[in-house]
Amino acid sequence: MESVRAVLIDIDGVLTVSWRPLPGAVTALREIRASGLGVALVTNTTSRTRTSIAETLSGAGFDVTAEDVLTAPAVTAAHLAEHYPDARCALLNSGDIEEDLSGVTLVGEDAEPDVVVVGGAGPEFGYTALNRAFGQLQRGARLVAMHRNLYWRTDAGLQLDTGAFLLGLERAAQVEAEVTGKPSPAFFAAALARLGVGAERALMVGDDIESDVLAAQRAGLTGVLVRTGKYLPETHERASGTPDHVVDSFADLPALLGLAR
To answer: pTM (2 decimals)?
Structure first.
C-alpha cells in the first residue's frame, strides 16, 4: 500500500445507505484526506447532480465538494459529445440531472431521437416509457446506458435498478448498449486523469464486486471490496474474479492503508 497515492470511492453502499453515513465512514474519509492521499468519489448514481450529492454528503459530515464527485451522467455527457456530437437524445431516467448533461440536446417524448440514453431506474421505468424506447431503438436509435447495475441497497432493502430493464431492451431490440459508467474502463480513466495518478498508484473501494472492484482491477487499480451496501456472500462466491482486498466496511480502510490513528 506504500505506493498508493489516490483512492477512488463508491458512495452508495460504501459511505452511505439512502444517503445516511455508515458507521465510521465520516471519520475514515477524514483520516484518508489528512494523510494527503487524493480522493475521488465515483458513483453510478443518476438521480442527483454532482452539486446535490456534494451538498448532501457535506451536510452529513463528510469533507466533500462537487469537485470531488464524478458521476455517470457527467461521464455520459463527455461520451456523447465525443461520439455523438449534436445528437438528439431521449433520456429515460429517474431524477433531474440536466445540470450534469451540459451540452447534450435532450428531446421530448414526441421527437425521434438519434440516441436513447438510459439512466437510473425508478417510477419512470414503466411499460409506456420502455416500449417507447424499444420502438426508437427499432427505428435505428443508438443505446447509451449510464450503468447496468441490477440492484442497489436502500434503507428498505435491495431495489431493482437499470440493468434489469436494460437487459430486456437489448434482447428485444437486438442491440448492445454502450455503457459509460462503472464498469466502463473510460469511467476509471476519467477519475484517474482528474486525480493525476496512474492506475498502479490508485485503489478503488466498492460494494459491487463486479462493477466496482473487479472492473477497477481490470483497469489496473487495486480493488477493495466492502461487506456493506449491496454486498452478498453468494455474489462474492460466484464472482468472475477475486478482489485484491476484502474489508468489513469503509471504516477499516485507514488501517488497510497503514495510516496512523
So the answer is: 0.85
Whether 72 contacts 177, CB under 8 Å: no
Per-residue exposure over 211-242, b if at least 16 CB sit within 10 Å of its own CB, e if not: bbbbbbbebebbbbbbebbbbeeeeeeeeeee
| Dist. CA 159–CA 138, nearest whole Å | 29
Read off the C-alpha cell for 242. 477475486
Cβ neighbour number for residue 260 with a 10 Å cutoff = 7
Fill in the amino acid letter for 210. Answer: E
Q: Compute how many other C-beta atoms are within 10 angstroms of the C-beta atom of residue 163.
A: 19
Query: For residue range 70-120, what is the model confidence (pLDDT) as tens digits?
Result: 999 999 999 999 999 999 999 999 988 999 998 999 999 999 999 999 999
Nearest Cα residue to 6 out of 220, 202, 252, 223? 202
Tell me how long the chain is: 261
d(Cα 10, Cα 40) in Å, to the nearest integer?
A: 9
